[in-house]
Write a structure and sequence with these properties.
By secondary structure, the protein is mainly alpha-helical. Helix content is 68%, strand content 5%. It has a five-stranded parallel beta sheet, with helices on both faces. It is elongated and about 105 Å long.
């Protein structure tokens, strides 16, 4: 018996997983594609009906009803299940009509019972609504049938009373289930309650399990960026405070905002965006921890009207997570005093989606501070909707050396002492000469390491061809000569 029970549970889990995968792929399709598919099915059904001699009006109506139910099932599965329960209840009308006199109102009153039961079932959180509806209607119908020979009025009152009692019991179960959840689980479910069901986290199989502590630890592990870390920690503290206020019964809004990341390239803006997505996801405020990265070319179309479509499709792909737009000021690419109509169309579309989907999406605009200030000043809506600024400082020479050493360790390499001294000298010089922002900060440290490792490999290959095989230590050690050669090549380039 236990094995058969486990088999049934496994089968249900497999079916549920398959259904959720279908939903996930369905909502990855752009809305316009979904509408075209529905229209094609409707036209195909009517065409088939005409070829087979069916009643075209009935064919059209039945197909439309089926398509509506499919859309409801994919978007709100629990609501669709409740609709099936209500439909099954209405099919009992002939049975109830046979139990009462021909002119009796009792059958109609019993049919109406399904509507308040369905509404109440969905108002009771923390338990499955359609199950509540079934458990309320079954005893109501059975008791009404049992009492109908005694009195039709009493039968109706007994049915309504039984449904109310079951719903009350389900409400108590819901409160007990809520009380047993941890604080983190409660904030996750509360966040999901404000999201359309197709984007609820439980629909997605394989999403990583990330705690707030893990996301903040990832932030702390980044080199440098102390002002940024403090600001992100403040954001996390604000989210936690909002959760505590909600737990205490106070009104608390969803602390999801749109951001402006200011700073030169190579200062970790994309990495911090990914960590921020994980923090919001860990708190249950976003459905996924993923970031969609974009630039002007990903938003602007080839002609007026295409830009809005392209921007909307990009936002649709990012829904549930973070949309990161690097060098966002590229959207306003004015020249010769002529306004950039394509970029302006992208900005207007982006502003509308930033407002309409503010509970389902975080948008981050990134770029140089001066250029971003000028960009934000071009449209009052930008400054009001993107009001959370995070300033990224340039890396110090010590931090750049630490980045290069970390990259080497991750690749299984190491710098010898002389090479480390050369790294310090190079990074100190480019920082003092204020060249590091133009060189890309962390990107320059990566390029220098990769070029030095390449020069090491070339040097060892030349020795091997001359009959001098390298030792195990030499194969993983970057020397001062390698660093100096790499600097010369990079500066020459």
């Amino acid at each position: 018996m236990q094995e058969s029970g486990r088999a049934r549970a496994a089968g249900r889990a497999a079916v549920r997983d398959l259904f959720e995968q279908v939903r996930l792929r369905y909502f990855r399709l752009p809305p316009a594609v979904r509408r075209v598919l529905y229209a094609a099915v409707l036209v195909g059904a009517v065409g088939t009906g005409a070829a087979l001699g069916w009643n075209l009006l009935n064919t059209f109506l039945i197909t439309a009803v089926v398509l509506c139910f499919v859309a409801l099932t994919l978007r709100f599965p629990q609501a669709a299940a409740t609709v099936l329960v209500v439909a099954g209840w209405t099919m009992l009308l002939p049975l109830f009509a046979a139990l009462f006199p021909p002119q009796s109102m009792a059958p109609s009153l019993l049919m109406v019972l399904a509507l308040p039961v369905a509404v109440a079932a969905h108002l009771i959180r923390w338990v499955t609504p359609w199950v509540s509806a079934v458990l309320a209607l079954i005893p109501a119908g059975a008791l009404a049938a049992a009492v109908s020979p005694i009195s039709e009025n009493l039968a109706v009152w007994v049915a309504y009373g039984a449904a109310t009692a079951v719903l009350g019991y389900r409400f108590l179960l819901a409160r007990r289930a809520r009380a047993e959840l941890t604080a983190e689980e409660r904030v996750r479910v509360r966040a999901r309650d404000h999201l359309p069901e197709q984007h609820q986290q439980e629909k997605v199989q394989g999403l990583p399990q990330i705690s707030v502590e893990e996301a903040l630890a990832e932030l702390d592990a980044m080199i440098g960026l102390n002002p940024v870390k403090e600001q992100v920690r403040s954001i996390a503290a604000s989210i936690e405070a909002s959760r505590l206020r909600a737990e205490a019964g106070y009104t608390a809004g969803r602390p999801v905002r749109h951001f402006v990341f200011l700073g030169p390239p190579g200062t970790g803006k994309t990495s911090v965006a990914r960590t921020l997505a994980k923090i919001f996801y860990a708190f249950g405020l976003l459905e996924t921890p993923y970031v969609v990265e974009a630039q002007r070319a990903d938003l602007v179309g080839e002609y007026l009207g295409a830009t809005a479509i392209k921007t909307n499709e990009l936002v649709d792909r990012a829904l549930g997570g973070v949309l990161f737009i690097d060098e966002a000021y590229g959207l306003i690419n004015s020249s010769d005093g002529q306004p950039d109509r394509f970029g302006a169309e992208a900005v207007q579309t982006l502003l509308k989606r930033a407002e309409d989907d503010r509970d389902r999406l975080v948008i981050i605009l990134a770029g140089y501070e001066r250029e971003m200030d000028a960009f934000l000043a071009t449209n009052p809506g930008l400054a009001s909707r993107f009001n959370q600024r995070v300033a990224f400082p340039s890396y110090t020479p010590e931090e750049l050396t630490e980045i290069a050493v970390l990259l080497a360790e991750q690749a299984g390499d190491r710098f010898d002492d002389d090479a480390l001294n050369d790294l310090d000298e190079v990074f100190t010089w480019v920082c003092e000469e204020r060249l590091i922002d133009g060189l890309g900060n962390g990107r320059f440290a990566r390029s220098l390491f990769e070029r030095a490792a390449m020069r090491r490999d070339v040097r060892l290959a030349a020795k091997a061809s001359a009959g001098e095989p390298a030792s195990a230590a030499e194969l993983t050690t970057i020397t001062s000569d390698d660093v100096r050669t790499a600097v010369d090549e990079l500066s020459g380039r």
